[in-house]
Amino acid sequence: MEPTWLQFIWYFLFVVLIIGYSVLDGFDLGVGVLSLFNGNAKERRLYINAVAPVWDGNEVWLLTGGGALFAAFPAVYATVFSGFYLALMLVLLGLIARAVSMEFRSKVDSPRWQALWDRVFGIGSLLPALLFGVAVGNLLRGIPLTADGEFAGNFLGLLNPFSLLVGMLSLTMFVTHGALFMAGKTAGSLRDRLLRTASQGWSAWVLLLVAANLYGLFDAPHLFAGAYSNPWLWVLFFALLIALIYLPVPIRLQKPGRALMISAGAIVVTIAQAATALYPRLVPARNAEELSLTIMNASSSPRTLSTMLVIALIGMPLVIAYTIFIYRVFKGRLVLDEYSY
């Protein structure tokens, strides 16, 4: 059975939403993780204030993606959210803790109080950055499913080497992305240290990407089955190769803004490549290919998909316009004042 154009469009839109979230919230998750390794209280305050004006707008992309998955592919939503329940609750806990930390940090003028919420901010960023990647790794690898499309595994089974590699890859991507964003918002010695961190992150990014792909050849061969017949996979492969080869150049030239754009492009292509390799599957069944949830057997009715498309065509431009507006308002170097967090 071939997918309809509505099913394809919603698969494409869902991938776009995940890409938007990864690029935008990816850097502020990375900034939060980096704050864990900074012992200077004043500099840690800079980390929080760098992302405080934009983090909630960034997470709109995640909420929209979750809503789109629920409405367009409800069977996938049910399977993933029930099977990954504990991991997703940890992600939710991290996101809530991160938001609370930004609001509570400045409420008491005490170094111990502020240090506590700085740590909460960092750990609340670390959990989603790592666990989102682990979840994606499991979806790429495939999970055991019943004939009814229900998850038939356990939590420990989700902690397999391939998925952990993808989790470390996502963490490294976001940390590198965050270091570049933060370098563009600061000056002096902190900026220099962040650029060095970005350079080290790039090296780890490349190594983990190679390791994940090599391991995936044996652990998830279905991802590479159509590589020779799908020209889009090769286009995306060479685009990613060019982006990662070029990324160290603007870092060495101390141009974090340009490097941030290249880093964003590399994240876009990485996710697009994974989605192309997975298509038309959404959740591969590791125990039996015929049990996989695809965009054909897991989608809502055509009327639901078409109604949602009208809503999306109205709502998405508003989200994009709001995102552009916020980043224009809060562009430039950080300056701490009496209104800062």
Explain what the structure shows.
The chain has a single domain (5-329), classed as Formate dehydrogenase/DMSO reductase domain (Formate dehydrogenase/DMSO reductase fold), CATH 1.20.1630.10. The chain contains twelve helices and two strands, in the order αααααααααααββα. The protein has helices at 5-35, 41-51, 55-72, 74-83, 85-104, 111-141, 161-185, 188-219, 231-246, 248-252, 256-278, 302-329, and strands spanning 281-283, 293-294. Helix 1 (5-35) packs across helix 11, helix 5 (85-104) runs antiparallel to helix 6 and helix 7 packs antiparallel against helix 11. It is globular. The model has no long low-confidence stretch (mean pLDDT 92).
Summarize it.
This protein has helices spanning 5-35, 41-51, 55-72, 74-83, 85-104, 111-141, 161-185, 188-219, 231-246, 248-252, 256-278, 302-329; strands at residues 281-283, 293-294. The chain is mainly alpha-helical and 341 residues long. Helix 1 (5-35) runs antiparallel to helix 6 (111-141).
Key terms:
Formate dehydrogenase/DMSO reductase fold, 2 strands, 12 helices, mainly alpha, globular, two-stranded antiparallel sheet, single chain, 341 residues
CATH superfamily: Formate dehydrogenase/DMSO reductase domain
Query: Could you report the average pLDDT, rounded to the nearest whole number?
Result: 92
What is the radius of gyration computed over CA atoms, rounded to a whole number of angstroms?
20 Å
Main sheet makeup: 2 strands, antiparallel
What is the SS-derived class?
mainly alpha
Task: Assess the beta-strand content as a share of residues.
Answer: under 5%
Shape: globular
Percentage of residues in helical conformation: over 70%
Give the H and E element order: HHHHHHHHHHHEEH
| Number of alpha- plus pi-helical segments | 12
CATH topology: Formate dehydrogenase/DMSO reductase fold
Tell me the total number of β-strands. 2
Terminal CA distance reads 54 Å
CATH class: Mainly Alpha
Q: In the residues, how many domains can be counted?
A: 1
Any guess at the CATH architecture?
A: Up-down Bundle
